[in-house]
Give the backbone structure.
Amino acid sequence: MDLYNIVAPTAPKVPIVISSPHSGTFFPPEVADQLKPEHVAAPDDTDWFIHKLYDFAPALGITMITANYNRWVIDLNRDPNSAPLYSDGRVITGLVPTTNFNGENLYQQNIPSQEEINRRLTAYYQPYHQKVDELLTATKAEFGKALLFDAHSIRKVVPGIRQEAFPDLILGDNDGKSASEAIINAAFEALKTDRYDLQHNHPFKGGYITRSFGQPAENVHALQLEMAKTNYMDDSETTYDEARANVMRTTLINVFEVLIKAL
């Protein structure tokens, strides 16, 4: 199993890379054996079908990288030293999660040792980040600028994070630090429609990928878009809903067309 998929543009290339670090569903056998079988069968914190939702991107000239391994193997959007990204009392899942977002134990017995965490860091985490860095470096070399768009989704309600339902869309830019003001404003205005409840940097402001790769002073920008799964899945949040997804895709295509012009 490859660690990730690279989907090359099918139209003239533009300086945007989309990353989907949480849509992977694969568990290596040695990891699956340690987890509770019900969690392996239905890894609920997965960003289900995000790679499918964004599959229009290559036709716009955008490069995509999508992870194949599940985030419960190792979370590609966490600090490699396990430093927490938030401090507001929500459940914080670590670099190698031992619980899901609602605090339920994932492992049958012993949680991974530091040696095992280091092994996964080397085997799964570092190659993904290195490839993202390569893609952004090559894009900047070609265009003089690059934008990383980190694509995510979450259940509409996750009590372990907060009791109330999430907004439909949350644009994150690390409180304005991961992208230029012009890029942030372009994305936010394009996402602002009557159909969706849009928030900015709350309750998510971008994970480690956004925060580490976004260097606007060096013409490398990064944005994260978190969305409720009900935007493109059915009410059970287990099945892809073509009708909802097509409406969402129309909004996303407009966002990227605006970003291409802004860049």
